[in-house]
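pinned: reference chain
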Amino acid sequence: MNITTSQKILLPILSLSVAFCMLAFQHIENSSQPIHFSPQENPVVIELFTSQSCYTCNNADAVASAIKDYENVIVLSYHVDYWNSLGWKDTFSDSRHTDYQRKYENKLHQPSFTPQMIVNGTTEFDGTNIRMLNNSLKEISTTEQLANPKASRKGRTIEMSYDLKNNQDFTNAYALLLMDSFEMDINKSPNTNMTLVNPNVVLKKVPLKINVEKGAQTFELPSIVDENNKFKVALLLQDENMTVV
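pinned: its structure tokens
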């Protein structure tokens, strides 16, 4: 087949147009807003592993911010420490969060990465993949509703009381202290000159005695946070396979 000069020009343009359309479709699919969540009877626990030094994590943080106040959706943001060598040390990075994420590797057959979302300890995907998130929010959750913990605050001290009775078998129980939202201006690479908004930051995660039905946990706010911020407490129960129960 002989191709004229005009055809030689036209074919690459057509190829680029097709490629552009494909990229545009993927972008639209992946950047559409999270669904208008219809609350389920049971909670959906979404654990986000993120970092202020991860170049794409700000997109996942934005997604988490959009859903963190949905009814019966519990977002827990764990800041890992394996990106700290790039120039910026994550304000909330904790090696224990990294260790916790790596415990999921054997179960989920997926190496640790950021941003990673894990739903109810059973399903994982890229935290920027809104299509996967939407599908997860539509699935019927099997987690059981816990009795709401009670919390009181005096200055930088938060007292939490909890009740673990009448719940299915669990191997691990945790009390968590969360900061509702934190805004940080980054002045070093890789996110230089960006303002990041971190939602539901896990400040502390404390193991609880599983043979005690009722108890209390005292949290002291870390010195790095302003006491004028909004804080939350949460309870998390998991079985031996790390499934959230």
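why pinned: The domain at 44-238 is CATH 3.40.30.10 (Glutaredoxin). Residues 2 and 64 are 55 Å apart (CA to CA).
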